[in-house]
Amino acid sequence: MIKYVPSLTDIVMEEIPHKVTLALEISNCQGNCIGCHSPFLREDIGEELTPEVIDRLIADNFGVNCVLLLGEGTDPDALKSIARSIREAHPGVDTALYSGRAEVEDELFELFDYVKVGPYIKEFGPLNNPGTNQRLYHHGEDITSVFWKTI
To answer: What's the pTM?
Structure first.
């Protein structure tokens, strides 16, 4: 089972480039990043994320063209099932996963259109810092540099 925190669900425009993204905070985070902005997500909180919940959230948020799971939880099979259900029920809606792990299985790159890897390390900064250790991939291609502004 994957759990999300409904009160933290939001529409975001900057997490995934050029997408109107429904961002879902996933609990039971296995990471232990120093400086984590949401350490409470390490706890077993929230409600079960099911295909029916995803369907309702997409229907209630007109214009969404990407669903982002901010975290993986503790049930890899449920995570994969959610990605598959979005693809099957909502053609044209991309799937995205933010993982705090340094590396993820190839299967996640196949199931999710966008995959962010790398734990947050304060001295390297987030994606918009050219020195970041984090990477965002789109269909396996590193697109992290789209976050770096040039003058």
So the answer is: 0.94
